[in-house]
Amino acid sequence: MPSATIRPETQYATLHQQGEAAQLGMWVFLATETLFFGALIFTYYLYRISYPEAIAHASEDTVLWCGSVNLALLLTSSLTMVLAINAAAQGRRGAAMALLLATIVLGFCFLGVKGYEYAADYSDKVVPAVNFTLKPGEPPASELFWIYYFVATGLHAIHVTTGLGLLLYVFWRLRQRRVTAAYYAPIEVVGLYWSFVDTVWIFLFPTIYLAGRL
Amino acid sequence: MYQWLPFWPPISSKQGIVVDDLVIAEVVVSTLIVLTVFGMMVTFCVRYRRGSQASRAHLMRKTWRIEIGWTVATLIAFLALFAWGADIYAWLFRSPPGDIEIYIVGKQWMWKVQHPGGQREINALHVPTGKTIRLVFASQDVVHSFFIPAFRIKHDVVPGTNETLWFKADQPGVYRFECTQYCGDQHATMTGEVTVMTPSDYEHWLTDQGVGQSLAEQGESLFRQYGCSGCHGPNSTVHAPSLNGLYGGLVHLQDGSVRRADEAYLRDCILEPRTFTVAGYPPVMPNFSGQIGEDDLMKLIAYIQSLAHRSASWR
Amino acid sequence: MAMIAAEAEPTYLDNENTIASWLLTKDHKRIALMFLASITAFFFVGGFAATLIRLHLATPNGLLQPSMYNRMFTMHGVIMVWFFLIPSIPTTLGNFLIPLMIGAHDLAFPRINLMSWYVFNLSGLVLLYALIMGGVDTGWTFYTPYSTSFSNGYVFAAALAVFVNGFSSIMTGLNFVVTIHRLRAPGMTWDRLPLFIWGIYSVSIVMLLATPVLAMDTLLLAVERFVGTGMFDPLRGGDPLLWQHMFWFYSHPAVYIMILPAMGLVSELIACYARRPIFGYSGMTIAMMAIAILSFFVWAHHMFVAGISIYSAILFSLTTFFVAVPSAIKVFNWTVSLHKGAIIFDAPMLYALGFVLLFTIGGVTGLMLATLGVDVPVHDTYFVIAHFHYIMVGATVSAFFGGVHFWWPKMTGRHYPEAWARFAAILAFAGFNLTFFPQYILGNLGMPRRYYTYPAEWQSWNLLSSAGASILAVAYALPLFYLGWSLFYGKRADPNPWRATGLEWLTPSPPPKDNFEHTPTVLIGPYSYDPESDRYTTQDGVSHA
Ligand code: HEA
Ligand code: HEA
Ligand code: CUA
Ligand SMILES: [Cu+2]
Fold first, then answer.
1. Residues with CB under 6 A from ligand 3
2. pTM of the prediction?
3. Residues 121-140 (A) with a CB less than 8 A from some CB of B
4. How many domains does chain C have?
5. Could you tell me if residue C182 is inside a domain?
6. Residue A87 falls inside a structural domain
């Protein structure tokens, strides 16, 4: 089946222009996201300076292997994502779809591990406002760490979920042949977003898991 | 000083006069700027209204020189005002040691005042003229702000820390003070009166209050009650720093930093001992946050301050 | 000729007229009108609260319960800032004019544009829910720990409303930035952009970089309020000043979000009615970008007495003085732009002149606040209230009204009644000064803000202010009537009734659905007015008498 010709929307003169606009839009959006997470990480550092011991202490109670496995999963998924974009750009539709599928699977694995980790945290009684209890000798400010932990990883998980939604959408468009070598901006833009989600984890990882361990 | 000006508030302190000079200077400069802009606008509007005969030839176009010119001019004028204001601010907010230290606790919706001699009052403050009065604030609940318009001083009172203000009143009289940070329903009624008296009237007032124990004395008994003396007392076996002569000096902390031992520092020592440690001591002091209320804290601090005047050989 | 063109191509208004065609439209012009309806509604709700405030303060003991009064000024502030003034010029005039002015057929992302409107209304509904259920009494600044642990209002819902509202801001800002970067007509280089576009561009950047911080801030607040965590609670080691820092990190840039579009807009009006090029075009553009960037480095000037260190106070005072410099450039340039013009005093021009004057007064009093020693006594008094109403109401709202009048023929194809409009403009100016000038004096006398009661000796000033507010209310309600009237009975408008130079005046009034039949080619910069010969040249290079 010959791929249907894709035409630009009315406000664009060419597909090229449309693709560029989409890219710029995503970059600008990521700038706002950077400030969003930046503000959170900033508050974290503020409290880390005020309560170095409490934060370090609390950080030791996080599940290091979960965080590390997740880091590996996300980094790998970024690789498959980039390869998928490359394949799409070269018109290798089958390869692009396979790589995209791999990315999606890795993303779901991330969420699975995260869910497991939350369950472990729950039984460790570190969920603020639900069952938070100070361990003997633990300074009270460590609760601040756990608030940060849940807000940060929770927001990140929401971003991962959104990313997965976008990936599925692009996958579907690939299947429909509405992303082709001639117009592959959608997969590129979603790829940008996915790398951002990955980058956020690279920043969260040390603040959460390594604060008390280095 | 500027009482002859219409719509000017009464001013009765050294600060008031210093601040007012600057306020007046700014009003004058601002008025001049507004009048210049307004004057130019009106002149141009009349002269160059549509249909007027004025010549429109040779529009001003080359602009950089003009723009940079007036930008620099305005900048210089205002940098002078900035420096003046910054100077006053540093002077206002760097409290000198007070002749009299008065403790004030803000809570929804009243100000509780404690004099060093143990006298208490609510929503009222009695002070003598000519003395440097130092006010030490704490809040029991939300952020309040203490403002005496006639003295032109104001400071937010933030829970979780101690703030200070100082003034030197020169005219006896009764002046208003207010809470200026929104703190709930009755924020608008969190006001009171400062009564400035001559020193002799003030002495009378103090004795009329029926003195009980002074603040520091009350603090001393609390010091035993809370078990502080067990470690910080003269014959304790715990390796804890002596508090004699501590207040006002510099303290070296374990992490290498240095802090001045003011009210906020003492407060942190008592409520958050684990966030920092005095150099050379084990971090064993228990955490008293949640156990000592603002009132008691003030008394303990007053007591530790009173120790400052005893001999402090080891420091 | 115009008649035939109109018949050949239906305008955006009567292209298709079912309810669904409006609610699902992707046309930026229709979305602009929908935004106009939404924010006008909010303006009147906020204005109603203001009316109650002034009515209450006419006597020292007022007529509302204290808790009611506190809810009123909170709602007034929240609605006026986030639901009226921040979206006002960008989402209505900006939405309508950006594609027209740069010669594009729509915004870059029409669906996101529509979504922005829905999100905006959704946040409005959440806010109205909070309002109806019992209101919020924290002030628009939501200072912690009062808002998190003590207030018994609907803080959670209000914070959520502000949070959701932020998404609308971000979507709109993103759309504008991409559109201005990518969809300019051939020849529309950066140095040929109308100043209104520059204003919108700079404001979009501020929106994009500041709003996310507010989003995080309100999110933490909502979490703390809802599940009782302790980020801002001093009893649990949290820091109440952290809230203030994060809030002002957003809200100071936000005040420039409220002025920058107005600055651009007024430049258009002054050039057109003075019939001469704006003085110092590049200076104006640089000034706007400078304000946008510097605005991020001054936030702590709201916290001079909050307990920040003396050194940071001095630093922030200095940066605040610097951010005033570009404003000074602009004021001088506007004033000089009147020199050797051929000035026409139509209603939009009256609003623009009022803007410059009131902005100057509000601005220089802002500098007094920025001066450390002076801010100490007047912080959180009516002096501050007067300062920001001079800028936000006196300047920005005036500019908005001026802009709506100026582009009314373009938007609706009808002329507004000039005499009524001039009357309303003058009335608003008079009423405004009567309302807010006494507040400077009250502030200096020491009347704190957010007080439901005050000593009797201050009543005369408060009474004057209340009297002024009632005049202002009339002046702001008037346009509703005569503009509504003009929709049906107003004179029909030509494509270019004001003999202006922008691209938006090249298409019929109202424009067809796709704006331009052919994408125009731009040959010259904006504002080619010649007061000597009384000719002007539109941006496509055609000279007119
Ligand atoms: C649109 C809104 C807007 C704008 C544009 C501004 C502009 C400015 N604001 Fe204002 N401000 C607010 C809205 C705004 N403000 C609000 C809402 C608050 C209170 C919030 C709250 O607490 O609820 C506030 C509060 C506020 C404070 C804190 C007061 C306090 O709480 O104690 C300060 C202090 O520095 C300040 C300063 C300034 C300055 C220096 C400018 C400058 O940008 C002004 C620059 C303009 C000029 C200077 C005039 C033009 C220049 C000339 C005519 C040339 C001559 C000038 C020179 C020689 C320099 N503002
Ligand atoms: C951003 C824009 C904005 C606008 C446009 C306004 C507009 C007005 N505001 Fe302002 N105001 C704020 C932003 C704004 N305000 C903020 C942020 C605060 C701080 C809040 C806080 O402390 O948290 C504040 C606080 C504030 C106070 C201080 C309250 C206090 O601290 O106790 C006062 C008091 O006079 C006031 C008055 C007014 C008046 C009279 C108007 C007038 O200009 C309004 C005129 C408009 C109308 C009147 C509506 C149109 C006409 C009608 C509706 C017809 C009449 C109809 C009926 C009455 C049914 N406002
Ligand atoms: Cu206490 Cu306002
Ligand atoms: Cu500000």
1. B 106, 109, 144, 179, 181-183, 187, 190
2. 0.89
3. 139-140
4. 1
5. yes
6. yes
